[in-house]
Specification:
Blueprint lengths: L38 E11 L2 E10 L5 E12 L2 E8 L3 E8 L13
Antiparallel strand pairs: 1-2, 2-3, 3-4, 4-5
GO molecular function, one term: zinc ion binding
Organism: Alosa alosa (allis shad)
GO biological process, one term: positive regulation of DNA-templated transcription
Length: 112
């Protein structure tokens, strides 16, 4: 993976988890061919392991096939919550948790 192609390695993205796509705001340009063009996604795989879906792919330069970063996205259901994570040198790191119930118990105000 190439640190010279990026503004920042693993930027904090809060709860924005990308299953596909690229965070181009963090892309400086290809350190190999010195072009700033579209970023291709290649070698995309989806694996389901014990109820956890793991999506991985490579971000590559459109012009010279230079590998910019490896992207990993996970999705699982734990108790009553959908859990999402993303880890990628280009897109950043993020986690999110969303209740599968109509009203999220974490968002309810205490009665007293």
């Amino acid at each position: 993976m190439c640190t010279d192609c990026l503004h920042k390695q693993y930027p904090d993205r809060g709860n924005t988890c990308l299953e596909n796509g690229s965070y181009l705001m963090n892309y400086v340009g290809c350190a190999n061919c010195h072009q700033r063009d579209f970023v291709m996604i290649s070698n995309k795989t989806t694996v389901d392991e014990d109820g956890e879906e793991i999506v991985t792919y490579l971000h590559m330069c459109k012009n010279c096939d230079h590998v910019i970063a490896r992207h990993e996205y996970t999705f699982s259901v734990v108790d009553d919550y959908q859990e999402y994570t993303m880890l990628c040198m280009l897109c950043g790191k993020a986690e999110d948790s969303i209740s599968v119930l109509p009203d999220d118990p974490r968002q309810t105000a205490p009665l007293f």
